[in-house]
Amino acid sequence: MASTTTSIExxxxxxxxxxxxxxxxxxxxxxxxxxxxxxSEGGSVRHLANPAGEAIVExxxxxDHAARSYSYSILQAPFPATDYLSTLQVDGIxxxxxxxxxxxxxxTPVGVSDDxxxxxxxxxxxxxxSALQQTLTQ
Length: 138
What we know:
By secondary structure, this protein is an alpha+beta fold. The protein has one domain: 2-Layer Sandwich (Alpha-D-Glucose-1,6-Bisphosphate, Chain A, domain 4). It has helices at 14-21, 27-30, 114-136; strands spanning 2-10, 36-40, 45-49, 55-64, 69-76, 81-93, 98-109. The radius of gyration is 15 Å and the shape is globular.
């Protein structure tokens, strides 16, 4: 099983950051790579489309509003991986005036090496957190 973790510090309160990303359907609000999202199964499954029109289907596995964290799995995606589980977490820094957002995941590669699939998701997470920072500091 492969894994990766990346984080970013954002000059915004944890509540402000969490308010933007806490909705399981909110990816299009801050992640340009995902232009559309719809929910099903009572809000626990999101159907995403990437710019190429490929379907990504994810299930909310754990949600902790008080800890500003949620975890999700991938049910369907054009990625070379299975057994995917990822967590998005917001923590306060600088006495609560800033935030550290961490995106981590573990997955089993399919047809590629551990390093290749880890690099793929690390890039997605890093680009996503940069987009989040840009959205919050505009």
